[in-house]
Amino acid sequence: MSVAELKDRHTAAAETLNSLKDRLKQKRLLLLDTDVAGYARSQGQTRVSFGPTDLVCCRTLQGHTGKVYSLDWTPERNRIVSASQDGRLIVWNALTSQKTHAIKLPCAWVMTCAFSPNGQSVACGGLDSMCSIFNLNSQTDKDGNLPVSRMLSGHKGYVSSCQYVPDEDTHLITASGDQTCVLWDITTGLRTSVFGGEFQSGHTADVLSVSINGSNSRMFISGSCDSTVRLWDTRVASRASRTFHGHEGDVNSVKFFPDGYRFGTGSDDGTCRLFDIRTGHQLQEYNQQHDDNEAPHVTSIAFSTSGRLLFAGYTNGDCYVWDTLLAEVVLDLGKLQNSHGSRISCLGLSADGSALCTGSWDSNLKIWAFGGHRRVN
Amino acid sequence: MQSGNGVEAESVAAATDMRGKHWISAELKRLDQETRFLEEELEQLEKMDNASSSCKETLGPMNPIWDRWFEGPQNSSGCRCPIL
Within an 8 Å CB–CB cutoff, is residue A332 touching chain B? Predict the structure, then answer.
């Protein structure tokens, strides 16, 4: 076949694909007979109510000298690792506010960090396109720096997000600007699987976030600059199990709902959304109206232990607490006393659900916890 | 010399043509594959439940009102929250 004939076939195939995408979109719209808020109201659900002293800032962790980009809690004990523009990881005891480790990174341009399940290692990645692992129990070198215990190299773009596979200290998943996610074997330093990329079906733009299903660690989701979220089975790298459309901008943050059957997202389009993994339906949009047309972008999200609350950090320093069922904002941590003075870049809930940590471009981290007594009705 | 240059130019053009052909061929395969995936998804959608079924499950077994976060102390002697 000649090049010209191939080009014609290519054009025709692209048109067929676009037409199918439109048909899928229309078909899905027809199936969206309600959303979670509509259904919840019809069942008489009432909104969670919050007083201004119910959730208070009880710690401010100061020590970074640059914007905080990422944070992660340990699965046990109250420790947090944070990554900053200052080129360091800091490990904090959240109860005492003390710093247990301040790790100078070989590459200062860090974007993400994560704690291992056993709390003995931390991983980080960024513009060096690598994921570096540090064992917190290692001896420091002659300059007082903690040595890198493993470098995971192979990505052809920046590492935007990383998460250890739950209960597996030897495996983690990274998301990258090279449009792929990778499952790594830390023991060997090798890639176990590559999800997407030029030879396989996958994201068509930078991947910005990843979340592994806590109920089924073979399943994870990734959010991308191509505005989609993809669900992956780690046993099947050749294609995503499902692609979720709806957002109209980069998907900066994805997080599984506590039961593992749904997930939340946060995007540059200013909205958070809730999707169902089994059907692919978008179940709810969380969108606060703004006077001007410049809605702040959502940078990070987390669910409370039951899923009833969705925490969302925004580029303008707001940190909304959404009632997940009724899609209403019940509190804005950004308006409380002692709130951050700048963009919320990252947030995460402690393992026992008793505290929320937020990280900001103001270089601080803050811990928010239940502030008083409350009767359960 | 000119005829030599002409032969060289022809073989460069042929090589470029071949690379372009390989690239378009690979792209075509990718598009065909994506089309098959979308056709499968369309078939699944024909048998899929409405969103209301999934919404019903979302309201499901979660604690109807309060998180562990908001349960607060069970006795009045002090807050159980370890942070405080």
Answer: no
Contact status of A283 with chain B (Cβ, < 8 Å)? yes
Radius of gyration of chain B (CA): 33
Q: Give A121-167 pLDDT, tens digit per residue.
A: 999 999 999 999 999 999 998 888 899 999 999 999 999 999 999 99
- Between CA A74 and CA A68 the distance in angstroms is 18
Nearest to A264 by CA among B58, B83, B56, B4: B58
How far apart (Å, rounded) are the C-alpha atoms in residues A176 and B57? 33
CA distance A341 to chain B (A): 23
pLDDT tens track for A90-106:
999 999 999 999 999 99
Q: How far is A187 from chain B (nearest CA, A)?
A: 34
Which residue is associated with the tokens 């090049």? Answer: A3
Q: Is A60 on the interface with B (CB under 8 A)?
A: no
Residue in this structure with the two tokens 């994560």, named with its chain if needed: A114
Q: What is the ipTM of this complex?
A: 0.82
Torsions phi, psi of B8, nearest 5? -65, -45
Measured between beta carbons, the chain A residues lying within 8 angstroms of B60 are: 259
Nearest to A348 by CA among A302, A298, A312: A302
Under a CB-based contact definition with an 8 Å cutoff, are residues A93 and A82 in contact?
A: no
- Give the C-alpha separation, B71 to A373, whole Å: 9
d(CA A151, CA A172): 12
Helix, strand, coil abundance in chain A, percent, nearest 5: 10, 40, 50
Distance CA A321, CA A342 (A): 17
Q: What are A189-198's contacts with CB under 8 Å, separation 24+?
A: A189/A150, A189/A151, A189/A152, A189/A153, A191/A154, A192/A234, A193/A234, A193/A237, A194/A237, A195/A222, A195/A230, A195/A232, A195/A237, A195/A240, A196/A230, A196/A240
Q: Residue A43: phi, psi to the nearest 5?
A: -95, 5
A129 to chain B, closest Cα gap in Å: 26
Q: CB of B71 within 8 A of CB of A308?
A: no
Higher pLDDT, A53 or A351: A351
Instruction: Enumerate the residues of chain A whose CB falls inside 8 A of the CB of residue B73.
Output: 373
By C-alpha distance, which of A177, A170, A173, A175 is closest to A150?
Answer: A170
- Residue environment code for A218-248, b if the CB has 16+ CB neighbours within 10 A, otherwise e: ebbbbbbbbbbbbbbebeebebbebbbbbbe
Nearest by CB to residue B32, choosing from A13, A282, A373, is A13
Q: Tally C-beta pairs within 8 A across A and B.
A: 167
